[in-house]
RNA sequence: GCCCCCGUAGCUCAGCGGAAAGAGCGAAGGACUUCUAAUCCUUUGGUCGCAGGUUCGAGUCCUGCCGGGGGCACCA
C-alpha cells in the first residue's frame, strides 16, 4: 500500500484523469501506482489500464492513451509513456522531486501522516514468568511487540502496553513457602534473589522430596487464592523481585515495558467468575466431563468432535482460556479499547482463534472492538533446531545480550578511534541492535536462524550497516561545520541523488505497510534500501567538495534528510543510532 | 485423521495480481595520498516444491499432492 507518498499523489492525478476522460471512478489506490523496477528508465508505473479495459469496453492501450490525454500532472511528471500491453511509465521532474525533499527536511514526521482514525490499542507482549529468569523464548515477543507499539504510537494511536506476566497458579504455593524458609518477611523489604532459576529449582526440589513442605505448599496455594493478606504480601514481594529482574533485561534490550504495564494472570483473577457467569447467562456454556466449556463453532479435534474452550476446569479452577476471555472482556468493556493485539508465538494460533470466536459470540468483540493475533515463528540454532545452548539448555536472555555486546565490542575495537567509554556505548548499540534487527528483518511468520556472524555482518541487511551509514552522514555534517538550513533547496543533478530522493520520499508508504500488517520487516527492507541508496550517493557525489556552493548545500541537506529517515526508522524499531562509530 | 504456517540462487532472505524474478553472503575480479573502505563497483548464479485451475496476466489467488515445522480437553 502506498500512502502519503509520491505513489498516492500520482494515483490522485491518474484517478482524476480517468474520471474526466472516461467517466471511470476509482480511488488513488486503485490506480495501482507502483515504483518501477530499475533499468526501465521510469520512476513509477501505472498498472490500472489492463484491468480497466474490460469494464470500459476498450483495449488496454486505448485506456492508457485516454489516461495520458486527460492527465493533469505537468508539475510533477517529466515524461509519461505507454509501454507493453498498457503500462504507463512515469518519469518525475527533478525540480518537483527536489522540492518534495526540501519540504520533508522541515517536516518532523518526514511525510508520514497521522492515522485518520486513531484507535486505542492494547498490545499484549513480553509475558515472562514470575520467579523464572527471562530466556530466549521471550525474545521475539518483546522485540516485535515493542516495535509494533512504537509504530502505532508514531501513527498517533493511543497504546496501552500489556505485559501478561505468568504470576499466578499452583507453583506459587511452593515458591512462597520457600521464601518463608529463606527468612523473607514483608516487614523488611529490599530482598533480592540472586538467581531466580536456582530459587525455582530449589523450591521444586524441596516440593518433590519433602512431604511436609509439599503439604505446606498446598495449604499456601489455598491461602493465596483465598486472599490471605500475609500470603499476598509475600507473593507481591516475589512479583516485585521478578519485575526488577525483567526491568534490567528490558533496559539492556531497549524495550519500553515498565512495571506499570504489568497486567499478569493475577490481574484478571477477580473477573474470572463473572466472565464465566456472563458466558453462561448468554447460553454459551455447556458442562462436559465436569468442566464448563464454550464450544465456538467451526473447531474440531482429532476425532471430529467439537473442540472446547475450557473456561472452568473440573476441579473448579480456571485455565488460560478463562484468563484470556476475561482479558478480552475487561479491555473492550472496561477500558474501551478498539484493538487488541496479541504478540504471541504461532503455536498459540488455535487458542486465540477460539478465544476470539467465543468473545465474538459473547458480544465483546465486534466491528468496533477487534482482536488480532500477531503470531511469529521460532528462533532456530544454526543446526536448524530450536535455539539452545550446546548442552541443550534454554539460553538466558541476560547472557545472550551480554554476549551480543561483547561480540560487538570486539568488532568495534578493531575499527574505531573512539575512547573507551564511547566504544562501550557503540558496542551496546551495535550488539543489541544486531539482535533486534535480525529478529525484525525477517517476515515474523517464519522461523529464523540465529547467527552471530550474520547479524553482526558489516554488509548486507543488518543493523550495523544502517548505523554505519548514519554515522558517516553525521560525520560529514560535523565536518561541514553547519547544519543545512530549513528549506535549503535540494537540487538534483546526479543519478545517485535522484535515486536517493525517490527512496526518501517512500518512507510514508513503508511505515504504513509495516503498521497495516504488523510487519516491522517491511520497514527494515525500506531502511536497508535507503542506506544502500545513500552509500551509492556518498560514493559518487562529493558533498563537502561539491562543484558549486549550491550543490554542496543541496547535498548537505540531502545527507541530513537521509540521517533523519534512518534515525527515525531505527527508533521505530527500537534500535539506537550512534552519532559516531 | 483434521487444522494452521513455511517451501524463491549453493547459503540466509525480500518480492504489493503486472513487463526479462531481487538483495546480501559465498565464489572471481576491481576501487583507499579521498567526506569514516564498518564502504562501493563489476562478474557469477533460478524447472519460484510438484500438478491442475481462475485471470488479458500467477512466485503472488483457488484446489489437490509432496516435503519441513507446529497445533488439536482441564499446563499456560
UniProtKB/TrEMBL annotation:
Record keywords: Aminoacyl-tRNA synthetase, ATP-binding, Cytoplasm, Ligase, Nucleotide-binding, Protein biosynthesis
Species of origin: Solihabitans fulvus
Full protein name: Arginine--tRNA ligase
Compartments, record wording: Cytoplasm
Membership in a protein family: Belongs to the class-I aminoacyl-tRNA synthetase family.
Catalysed transformations (reactions): tRNA(Arg) + L-arginine + ATP = L-arginyl-tRNA(Arg) + AMP + diphosphate
CDD domains, A to Z: Anticodon_Ia_Arg, ArgRS_core
EC main group: ligase
Keyword Membrane (UniProt): no
Gene3D superfamilies with a match to the protein in the record: Arginyl tRNA synthetase N-terminal domain, HUPs, Isoleucyl-tRNA Synthetase, Domain 1
Domain Arginyl tRNA synthetase N-terminal per the UniProt entry, residue ranges: 8-92
HAMAP family linked to this entry: Arg_tRNA_synth
Short sequence motif 'HIGH' region: positions: 128-138
Chief location: cytoplasm
Record-linked PANTHER family: ARGININE--TRNA LIGASE, CYTOPLASMIC, ARGINYL-TRNA SYNTHETASE
Single annotated GO MF: ATP binding
Amino acid at each position: 500500500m502506498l500512502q502519503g507518498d509520491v505513489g498516492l499523489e500520482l494515483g490522485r492525478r491518474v484517478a482524476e484523469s480517468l474520471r474526466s476522460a472516461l467517466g471511470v471512478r476509482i480511488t488513488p489506490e486503485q490506480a495501482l501506482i507502483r515504483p518501477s523496477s530499475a533499468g526501465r528508465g521510469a520512476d513509477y508505473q501505472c498498472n490500472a489500464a489492463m484491468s480497466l479495459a474490460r469494464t470500459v469496453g476498450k483495449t488496454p492501450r486505448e485506456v492508457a492513451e485516454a489516461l495520458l490525454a486527460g492527465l493533469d500532472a505537468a508539475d510533477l511528471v517529466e515524461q509519461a509513456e505507454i509501454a507493453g500491453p498498457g503500462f504507463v511509465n512515469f518519469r518525475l521532474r527533478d525540480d518537483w522531486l527536489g522540492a518534495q525533499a526540501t519540504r520533508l527536511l522541515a517536516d518532523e514526521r518526514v511525510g508520514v501522516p497521522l492515522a485518520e482514525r486513531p484507535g486505542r490499542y492494547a498490545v499484549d507482549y513480553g509475558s515472562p514468568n514470575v520467579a523464572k529468569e527471562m530466556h530466549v523464548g521471550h525474545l521475539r515477543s518483546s522485540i516485535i511487540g515493542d516495535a509494533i507499539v512504537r509504530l502505532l504510537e508514531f501513527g498517533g494511536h493511543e497504546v496501552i502496553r500489556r505485559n501478561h506476566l505468568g504470576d499466578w497458579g499452583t507453583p506459587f504455593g511452593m515458591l512462597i513457602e520457600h521464601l518463608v524458609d529463606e527468612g523473607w518477611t514483608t516487614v523488611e523489604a529490599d530482598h533480592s534473589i540472586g538467581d531466580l532459576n536456582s530459587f525455582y529449582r530449589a523450591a521444586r526440589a524441596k516440593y518433590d522430596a519433602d512431604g511436609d513442605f509439599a503439604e505446606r505448599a498446598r495449604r499456601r496455594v489455598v491461602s493465596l487464592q483465598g486472599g490471605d493478606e500475609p500470603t499476598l504480601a509475600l507473593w507481591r514481594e516475589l512479583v516485585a523481585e521478578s519485575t526488577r529482574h525483567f526491568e534490567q533485561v528490558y533496559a539492556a534490550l531497549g524495550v519500553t515495558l515498565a512495571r506499570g504495564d504489568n497486567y499478569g494472570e493475577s490481574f484478571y483473577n477477580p473477573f474470572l467468575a463473572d466472565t464465566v457467569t456472563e458466558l453462561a447467562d448468554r447460553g454459551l456454556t455447556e458442562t462436559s466431563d465436569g468442566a464448563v466449556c464454550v464450544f465456538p463453532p467451526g473447531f474440531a479435534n482429532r476425532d471430529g468432535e467439537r473442540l472446547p474452550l475450557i473456561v472452568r476446569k473440573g476441579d473448579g479452577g480456571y485455565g488460560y482460556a478463562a484468563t484470556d476471555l476475561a482479558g478480552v472482556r475487561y479491555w473492550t468493556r472496561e477500558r474501551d479499547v478498539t484493538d487488541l493485539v496479541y504478540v504471541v508465538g504461532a503455536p498459540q494460533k488455535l487458542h486465540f482463534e477460539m478465544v476470539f470466536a467465543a468473545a465474538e459470540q459473547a458480544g465483546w468483540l465486534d466491528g468496533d472492538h477487534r482482536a488480532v493475533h500477531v503470531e511469529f515463528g521460532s528462533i532456530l540454532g544454526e543446526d536448524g533446531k530450536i535455539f539452545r545452548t550446546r548442552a541443550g539448555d534454554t539460553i538466558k536472555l541476560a547472557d545472550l545480550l551480554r554476549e551480543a555486546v561483547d561480540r560487538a565490542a570486539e568488532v568495534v575495537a578493531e575499527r574505531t578511534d573512539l575512547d573507551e567509554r564511547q566504544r562501550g556505548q557503540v558496542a551496546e548499540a551495535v550488539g543489541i541492535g544486531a539482535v533486534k534487527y535480525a529478529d525484525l528483518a525477517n517476515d515474523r511468520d517464519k522461523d529464523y536462524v540465529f547467527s552471530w556472524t550474520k547479524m553482526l555482518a558489516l554488509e548486507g541487511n543488518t543493523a550495523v550497516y544502517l548505523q554505519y551509514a548514519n554515522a558517516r552522514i553525521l560525520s560529514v555534517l560535523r565536518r561541514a561545520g553547519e547544519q543545512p538550513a530549513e528549506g535549503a533547496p535540494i537540487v538534483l543533478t546526479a543519478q545517485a541523488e535522484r535515486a536517493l530522493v525517490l527512496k526518501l520520499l517512500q518512507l510514508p508508504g513503508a511505515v504504513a505497510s509495516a503498521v497495516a500488517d504488523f510487519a516491522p520487516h517491511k520497514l527494515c527492507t525500506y531502511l536497508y534500501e535507503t542506506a544502500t541508496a545513500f552509500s551509492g550517493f556518498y560514493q559518487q557525489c562529493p558533498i563537502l567538495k561539491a562543484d558549486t556552493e549550491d550543490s554542496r548545500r543541496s547535498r548537505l541537506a540531502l545527507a541530513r534528510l537521509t540521517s533523519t529517515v534512518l534515525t527515525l526508522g531505527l527508533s521505530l524499531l527500537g534500535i539506537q543510532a550512534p552519532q559516531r562509530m
